[in-house]
Amino acid sequence: AARLSSGAGGEAEAADRGGAMLRHLARKLRASGPVTVAEYMREALTNPGQGYYTRRGGVGESGDFITSPEISQVFGELIGIWYISEWMAMGKPNTFQLVELGPGRGTLTDDILRVFSQLASVLCKCDVSVHLVEVSPKLSEIQAVMLTGGKVQPNPEDKSAYMKGVSKTGIPIFWYRDIQDVPPGYSFYLAHEFFDALPIHKFQRTEKGWREVLVDIDPEVPDQLRFVLSPSRTPATQNFIQPEETRDHVEVCPEAGVIVQRLASRIEKDGGAALVADYGHDGTKTDTFRGFRNHKLHDVLSAPGTADLTADVDFSYLRKMAQGRTATLGPIKQREFLKNMGIDLRLQMLLQNSGDTATREQLLHSYDMLMNPEKMGDCFNFFALLPHHRLLHPDKKDKPESPKSPLPPVAGFNELLIK
Ligand code: SAH
Where is this region: Disordered (predicted)? Predict the structure, then answer.
């Protein structure tokens, strides 16, 4: 529902690559049997030679799907305000890293950095750096142009960051393939439409118990893929299905779990916060695996590598994987989060400052895309990890005689209060 219609991509190139990836997968399946949906998704999306994100990475109007930061600058601006408001609530530490997972075209970070620059007097002595976790060489190039005007250098002497540069606003930026490579330190993490792109396992309840859904080659039709069920339980069925599960079909994304564990332990140790925004549910949905190409639904098993494959994020699983190391907030609907962050006021300001009708119409249209419950307002959610002490009432945290004022509520999940 969130993806816009229209737009066109390199169809001939895509068809070509779809063929190459399919042949590669068919060879593998013939040689060693069916693979898990997670393995299939990983190959299709991030295979170093032919993966969808590696080669095509179609975020944006001319690609395969459009995301909130690509729809409106206001989205990134309000997220920028969220980080500043949390930085203030946490006592204005003198340095922080902004770490974005899966930055797409770099638009969201660009909008956030513009806010940081406009509010430089508030952030004055704070030493800020940006750390982008991106597997796609193609998208990292696009991010480099967006954020630095193309002034980047490969970073061979430092094995962890593969590229570095300086933002248009003078902030150092580093690129990594894995969150583990990002240096430790007080950090604000951001994952927008990132977790939905990570590989999922799928399970089906049958009369004989839980079985894992696998991808195999169709013996009747050459080079066509099909879903099959594992003949017996797989290691994943044992590990990921809870005995009290009531659904008949379940999707689990262990990679998301590992990343949330890492974020939670980093925040517990070094401080900061994480903001996750994505479409998803709280452990209630069943089959959400789907593909997008040229803004249209696409059969997940056809022409792998040419379409975005995605599944709804299970926020209840993310909450569980934080393992109590941090507090969690949400999921809260996007329209409520943005309303709490002051989107209405920001829209009014932009409307007042725009002279021409076309810009005003565009502003109203993009507001509707982000906020309308039938569009992105209800299906997208915000979820946060915060150190426990951020939410503790000062009575419990400090000695009774401490004169500290109460902690401000967390913006977005409550109304934004600016002193
Ligand atoms: N956040 C952006 C883009 C979302 S698309 C936006 O909202 O517009 C998903 C992004 O995650 C892409 O940048 C893709 O290349 C990246 N990505 C996908 N799998 C990844 C992985 N395993 N590690 C790091 N980045 C990944």
Answer: 394-413
- Looking at residue 398, its pLDDT comes to 53
**Is residue 214's pLDDT more than 50?**
yes
| Residue 287 is assigned to a structural domain of this protein | yes
With respect to residue 1, please indicate whether it lies within any of the assigned structural domains. no
Q: What is the DSSP string of 26-44?
A: HHHHHHH--EEHHHHHHHH
In a domain, 25, yes or no: no
Q: Which atom of ligand 1 is nearest to the CA of 68?
A: 7
What's residue 417's pLDDT? 78
Residue 214 sits at φ, ψ, to 5 deg, of -120, 165
Protein residue whose Cα sits closest to atom 23 of ligand 1: 135
**Atom 2 of ligand 1: nearest residue by CA position:** 104
Going by C-beta distance under 8 Å and a sequence separation of 6 or more, which residues neighbour residue 400? none
pLDDT per residue over 73-97, tens digit each?
Answer: 999 999 999 999 999 999 999 999 9
Q: 216 near 225, Cβ under 8 Å?
A: yes
Measured in angstroms, how far is the CA atom of residue 208 from the centroid of ligand 1? 38
Rounded distance from Cα 60 to ligand 1 centre (Å): 13
pLDDT of res. 408: 86
Condensed to tens digits (0 to 9), the pLDDT of residues 102-146 reads 999 999 999 999 999 999 999 988 999 999 999 999 999 999 999
Q: Report whether residue 309 contacts ligand 1, using a CB cutoff of 6 Å.
A: no
pTM: 0.94
Let me know how long the chain is. 419
Does a structural domain hold residue 142?
yes
CATH number of the domain to which 138 belongs: 3.40.50.12710
> Who contacts 62 (Cβ-Cβ below 8 Å, separation ≥6)?
7, 8, 9
Query: What atom in ligand 1 is closest to the CA of residue 198?
Result: 19
CA geometry: angle 391, 395, 401, nearest 5 deg? 140
For residue 51, give the amino acid letter: G
Number of domains in the chain: 1
First and final C-alpha spacing in the chain:
38
**By alpha-carbon position, which residue is closest to atom 6 of ligand 1?**
104
Average pLDDT in the chain: 91
Give the number of the atom of ligand 1 that is nearest the alpha carbon of residue 54. 15
Give the three-state DSSP class for 275. strand
